[in-house]
Amino acid sequence: MGSDVALHLMEQLLWGALLICAPILICTLLVGLIVSVLQVVTQIQDMSLTFIPKLVATILALTVFGSWMLRKLLIFARELITNIPNYF
Fold first, then answer.
1. What three-state secondary structure class fits 8?
2. Most buried residue among 53, 60, 70, 85 by CB atoms closer than 10 A?
């Protein structure tokens, strides 16, 4: 029984982490892809050109999706803490 509970908690943890990180990762990936295409087309190879737009996109994604991400994390923590007596 103990290993089943541990595996179930690990599965919930990994899926939750993937879901919470997805908006930032997708936004940064899309901005990086667009900047890379622009660099190939214009042949401008500057390191700050790739770093700064990704940083701005990450900050914007945190601003837009931050409350949703925090809510998901709090729901997971609340369920984990309230179910502690059921694990033993």
1. helix
2. 53
Residue stretches of the chain with pLDDT short of 70: 1-2
Integer Cα distance of 43 and 59 in angstroms: 27
For 15-40, b where at least 16 C-beta lie within 10 A, e where not — what string?
A: ebeeebeebbeebbeebeeebeeeee
Entry pTM = 0.78
Tokens 């179930």 sit on residue = 8
Residue 58 has, within 13 A of its CA and on its CB side, a CA count of 11
DSSP 85: G
How far is the C-alpha of 30 from the C-alpha of 28, rounded, in Å? 5
Q: Are 87 and 5 in contact (CB under 8 A)?
A: yes
Calpha distance 45→71 (Å, rounded):
40
